[in-house]
Amino acid sequence: MRTGVIATLLIVAIVAGAGAGYYVSSSNRSNTTSIITTTSFITRSGYTYTVTKTVTTTCSGYPPGGDCITPYNYTFTLSVNYTGPWKVSYQGYNSLGRSNPTNVSGNYSGAGFNSTTITLRGLSNNGLTLCAQAQKLDASNAILTLTVTGHNETSLPYGVVSYCGGVVP
User: Fold this and answer.
1) C-alpha 124: how far from its chain's center?
2) CA dist., res. 132 & res. 93, Å (int)
3) Taking a C-beta distance cutoff of 8 angstroms, is the pair 14, 52 a contact?
4) What is the SS3 assignment for the chain?
5) Which of 119, 140, 152, 153 could cysteine-pair with 163, CB 3.0–4.6 Å?
6) Each residue's pLDDT expressed in tens, for the chain with a length of 169 residues
7) What is the value of pTM for the model shown?
8) Residues 133, 148: contact at Cβ < 8 Å?
């Protein structure tokens, strides 16, 4: 019978699910996160058992020097400068480079100078990148300049220019 009760307890514990919560304590120098999971079940003989498990993690400081991971955002300024008509498209990434694209993307067109801001959000254990591509829509030899965190330019008729700018927290 004892084996049957233990087996029943294990099955009930697995099937019953668990209530979970967490507690975060932070200061300027460190964060402590505790995840508390509690499971209660009743045996066939009417006894109630409660199992509580607490997992605590601690980190110290924020990147780049520390290991605490927090959400952050960065607002890029995307600028196009060209006397004639142009179009631009952009894509955000949760990385330094062109991997892990975000849902932040778009395209628009115009003429002359235009500057807009684009905010990307991510976690502090990774960088953020905004890539843009601009194209001249006429045969002029005038210079089109695309700026994100740095710039790139072209004077070719119907020329296309790309630039990716990245930041780390």
Assistant:
1) 8
2) 11
3) no
4) CHHHHHHHHHHHHHHHCCEEEEEEEECCCEEEEEEEEEEEEECCCCCEEEEEEEEEEEEECCCCCCCCCCEEEEEEEEEEEEEEEEEEEEEEECCCCCCCEEEEEEEEEEEEEEEEEEEEEEECCCCEEEEEEEEECCCCCCCEEEECCCEEEECCCCCEEEEEEEECC
5) 152
6) 444 433 333 333 333 333 333 333 444 445 555 566 677 767 777 777 777 777 777 777 766 667 778 888 999 999 999 999 999 999 999 988 888 888 999 999 999 999 999 999 988 778 899 999 999 999 999 999 999 988 899 899 999 999 999 888 7
7) 0.63
8) no
Retrieve residue 18's tokens. 């668990």
Q: Which two tokens stand for residue 94?
A: 């949760």
